[in-house]
Specification:
alpha/beta, Double Stranded RNA Binding Domain, Arc Repressor Mutant, subunit A, two-stranded parallel sheet
Length: about 170
């Protein structure tokens, strides 16, 4: 099944959205080294699912949407998919620690594995991995960079008190 992509300008830079006819596959931040070679995908701004994803992201960034309603086509190990599914249970405007996320999926001793799965999340924002923080309230690891994580948490009024203030210049 062929994959299609489009880009959308957001407050955190140009996001690349990839989908096939079955569902949304990935959202890639600017300068993310995981950005696949797009020559394998067809650029298609008018693909219905890509249009829907773009619209829902725009609504999120303007605080008109708190949850996403999109079909997903994601690939990963069973453990990764369990972690990614658990991300959808973290409410808008709330954060949890990696340890709490590990406990939620029944693997309380697998905090590092949960962190690694979180870091491989192919659909950031839609599967809100930015809502997972360090046990001490610190902002840790994020594919879009810590300033982006800070921006998203601030957008949701969920930035932990005392979190370090990061430079929020988005070059685009």
């Amino acid at each position: 099944m062929p994959f299609f992509y489009c880009t959308t300008v957001s407050p955190i830079g140009v996001l690349t959205i990839i989908a096939n006819d079955s569902g949304l596959h990935s959202i890639v931040f600017p300068k993310d080294e995981r950005l696949p070679g797009l020559d394998h995908y067809q650029h298609k701004d008018d693909h219905p699912l890509l249009r829907q994803a773009r619209m829902q992201l725009e609504q999120y960034f303007t605080k008109q949407r708190r949850e996403f309603d999109l079909p997903l086509t994601i690939h990963g190990t069973e453990f990764q998919r369990t972690v990614w599914n658990a991300l959808t249970t973290i409410p808008y405007g709330r954060t949890i620690s990696y340890a709490e996320l590990a406990a939620r999926i029944g693997h309380s001793r697998a905090v590092r594995a949960v962190g690694a799965a979180n870091g491989r999340n192919p659909l950031p924002i839609v599967l809100p991995c930015h809502r997972v923080i360090g046990s001490d309230g610190s902002l840790t690891g994020f594919a879009g960079g810590l300033p982006t994580k800070q921006y998203l948490l601030r957008l949701e009024n969920a930035l932990p008190e005392g979190a370090a203030t990061l430079e929020l210049a988005f070059p685009f």
